[in-house]
Write a structure and sequence with these properties.
Radius of gyration: 32 Å
Structural class: mainly alpha
Helix content: over 70%
Order of helices and strands: HHHHHHH
Number of strands: 0
Oligomer: single chain
Shape: extended
């Protein structure tokens, strides 16, 4: 038994000495040869790049989850939803099923509008967790500008002059609301 203990102890000491020699050799090569130092620096730079690459998705997600970014995404989703549902409702011929709008459910335009509306709902709930309701609701009113403009551009609907005046008033109101918000965000 004592011989086995001494063998185990000897293996431990030899292994420890080899590890110390190896690390000492690596350090001496690193300090004695510029190529060794350069290689060490290159590997450290690669490790730093990998760390940065790993943190990039986190920053992207953090930016995506910003409540103001989500408000913009939500307003785009609501606008596209309304335009898609209008296109779907208009694509169904009038008939018995059409008088309630049920026939529009046969159109993929309508279903695409429903999906985008549900996605906008998730965006809206996220915004409500982080912003006061009064501010969030005031800012989401940008859809009152985007939907008529989108209908004009994509569905070729006419916008009367009075509607353009109303759109410009909504934009002025949004700017009045946003100005203090931007100042407060800059102070943070």
């Amino acid at each position: 038994m004592p011989a086995q203990d001494s063998t185990t102890s000897l293996e431990h000491h030899v292994g420890s000495a080899l590890r110390t020699m190896h690390s000492g050799t690596v350090e001496s090569v690193r300090s004695a040869h510029p190529a060794g130092e350069a290689e060490h620096d290159r590997r450290a730079e690669i490790r730093g790049a990998v760390t940065t690459a790993r943190s990039f998705p986190r920053r992207l997600v953090r930016g995506f989850l910003n409540p103001y970014v989500q408000l913009a995404i939500g307003s785009l989703l609501v606008t596209s939803s309304e335009l898609l549902m209008k296109k779907g409702a208009s694509s169904v011929p009038a008939g018995v099923v059409g008088w309630l709008g049920i026939g529009a459910l046969c159109s993929w335009w309508t279903w695409a509008g429903i999906v985008t509306y549900v996605l906008s709902f998730f965006s809206w709930v996220h915004v409500l967790r982080l912003l006061p309701l009064g501010l969030a609701y005031a800012l989401i009113n940008v859809v009152h500008v985007m939907i008529p403009v989108g209908a004009w551009v994509f569905l070729h609907e006419a916008i009367p002059v009075r509607r353009w005046v109303g759109i410009s008033l909504v934009l002025c109101g949004l700017l009045l609301i946003l100005k203090p918000v931007v100042r407060a965000e800059q102070k943070l």
